[in-house]
Structures are given as structure tokens and as C-alpha cells.
Amino acid sequence: MRVFFDDFRRNFFKDFYPNRREAKQLSRIMDTDIHLNDDGSYTVYVDMPGFKKENIKLNYGNGILTIFAERTKDSQKKNNHHVVSEERSSGEYRRSYQIGDIDPSKIKASLEEGILKIDLPILNGENNTDIKIN
């Protein structure tokens, strides 16, 4: 039985990531810290190395914050030189976080030195609704 579970753990993500190098690269993209501030708001810090501001899109709806990002590879051949080794990843990336009670009209985001900072203010009390229990 133990052999079964060891094999299962070893091969579970095999279909998701073609090789270990790619899995390692993807794990470094969009590493996230979410802080709960004293006023009840949230600040989200997301590692976005190599991404340009214009290639990042944010969406908040139904209590879910979603980050879409795209990074493209440089030309394979420049100045008559060929790529010998290539470890930097490219492609489209998406990550979602369930964070409720946020005022979408007051969300602010900035990108500085590869770190995306998102301020998520809480809804004011007047926007909440009392729910009657039947």
C-alpha cells in the first residue's frame, strides 16, 4: 500500500507539467502574500518578474480577484547568434484568489521592481444588507 502512495505522489503532477524544470519555473511565477491590514482591508503582493505592466490585467467579480498575465520570449536568433540554453519561461498565466467584502471601485494596483501590489479596501457598512432568516 505504501508503494502505491509513494508512486501516486511521485507521478500525480506528471500530466500537469511535462518535466520538472517547467514545474519549477511555474512555481516561481505569481508567488503571493496576502496581508490583512488593521482596518480590515487586504494588501496582496504578487511576484511578477519579467512582466510588463501592459501585459497584466486584473479582474474582480463575485468575490474573486483574478490576475491574467502574459510574457513572450525574445526572438530566437539575434545578431546572428543562436540560443544555446533557454530557461526563462513564457506564455499566459492566470491566478485567482477568493477575497470577499471588497469595494471594487476603490481597488488600486501598482507594479514596481517585479512586484505587483494590490490594495483591496473593504466595503463600507452601508453597502451591506441585513438578511432575514425564515
Describe this structure in words.
It is a single chain. By secondary structure, the protein is mainly beta. It has helices spanning 2-11, 20-28, and strands at 32-36, 42-47, 56-61, 64-71, 77-78, 81-82, 91-98, 108-112, 115-120. A hairpin with a 2-residue loop joins strand 3 and strand 4 (64-71). The radius of gyration is 20 Å and the shape is elongated. The relative contact order is 0.19.
Number of strands: 9
Q: Give me the number of helical elements.
A: 2
Instruction: Please describe the biggest sheet, giving its number of strands, its sense, and whether it closes into a barrel.
Output: 4 strands, antiparallel
Tell me the Rg in angstroms: 20 Å
Keywords:
three-stranded antiparallel β-sheet; elongated; 134 residues
Architecture blueprint of SSEs:
Blueprint: H1 2-11, H2 20-28, E1 32-36, E2 42-47, E3 56-61, E4 64-71, E5 77-78, E6 81-82, E7 91-98, E8 108-112, E9 115-120
Antiparallel strand pairs: 1-2, 2-9, 3-4, 4-7, 5-6, 8-9
Domain SHSP: 20-134
Family: Belongs to the small heat shock protein (HSP20) family.
Organism: Listeria floridensis FSL S10-1187
